[in-house]
Amino acid sequence: MIAAATMEKITRIASRTVVLNIDNIDTDQIIPARFLTTTKREGLGDMAFHDWRYSGDGQLNPDFALNRKENQGRAILVAGDNFGCGSSREHAPWALLDSGLRAVISTRIADIFRSNSLKNGFVPVVIDPQPHRWLLDNPGAEVVVDLEQARVELPEGPPAPFEIERFARYCLMNGIDQLGYLLRQQERIDEWERQRARRRQRA
Fold first, then answer.
1. Could you tell me the maximum CA-CA distance found in the chain, to the nearest angstrom?
2. Is the pTM of this model over 0.90?
3. Fold held by 12-202
4. Is residue 156 exposed (0-12), middle (13-18) or buried (19+ Cβ within 10 Å)?
5. 62, 72, 109, 186 - which has most CB atoms within 10 Å?
6. What are the pLDDT digits (tens) for 110-159?
């Protein structure tokens, strides 16, 4: 029997932010191609931003944002413009999720990365430049990504709205993937098949 992926239900993500003020972060920087030999998600978090996170001798780079003690356990990444560009790889959102991140906020997110993220329970958020600039300038700000209202709640000023595809939002809020959605329609699918068979018999 085919099984749907198990995902956490997401309605609100509340966290202090981790800031990577770098434009054009591509999928090879998120997870280098040499780590794409596995189909397992577990452990990929250690490879997220590997070539920035580790020095040449394999030691953690203490200056990299995700390695700093104060940023441990934070779930919302604020990145520069055009996040997730480059080649398509589902391992990119897998690695981010396994590292503990749940959402990324930017002014632009590559379409393929956005699609892969939404299908795997990682929330890509595009907001206007003004509130994004404030987030870049205020690392560690306490924010809420509210999927129900499709907005980012900031410590000051009005919430920053963002767009999210209706079906993707439904799946995220219900903790299901596309297959899970189809399996929920099994009774309706079976009934359609029965009606179709009856129409063929009458023809």
1. 74
2. no
3. Aconitase; domain 4 (3.20.19)
4. exposed
5. 109
6. 999 999 999 999 999 999 999 999 999 999 999 999 999 999 999 999 99
